[in-house]
Amino acid sequence: MVRLPLTPAEVERGQRLGALLRRARGDRPMLDVALAAGVSPETLRKIETGRIATPAFPTIAAIADVLGLSLDELWSGVNRPAREPLAS
Q1: C-alpha distances in angstroms, 72 versus 1, 3, 23, 29, 44?
Q2: Contacts of 84 (CB under 8 A, 6+ apart)
Q3: Which of 49, 61, 64, 68 is the most buried (most CB within 10 A)?
Q4: What does the pLDDT average to over 54-76?
Q5: Share of the chain above pLDDT 70, in %
Q6: What is the spatial distance between Cα 81 and Cα 84, in angstroms, rounded to a whole number?
Q7: Does residue 34 contact residue 44 with C-beta atoms inside 8 Å?
Q8: Is 36 exposed, middle or buried (0-12, 13-18, 19+ CB in 10 A)?
Q9: Three-class DSSP category at 88
Q10: By three-state DSSP, how is residue 23 classified?
């Protein structure tokens, strides 16, 4: 299967997702969050840095659950217009 290159919008959305998850994780160790979500720390690191711009839904749902984020909250934070600033 050939994967199409990501669009600039998809890359930017992946970066917003990573930033949102990093903020939600706060001071919690990446290892603790990753293990609680059932993903590898490397996967979480790649998502947080935007290197995995389109992670699988179950992966994001598990991480969001561990971080106490609702999927609605996550979607609204990731899917906002590009010019809107990230919430602090």
Answers
A1: 31, 28, 17, 24, 20
A2: none
A3: 64
A4: 95
A5: 91
A6: 6
A7: yes
A8: middle
A9: coil
A10: helix
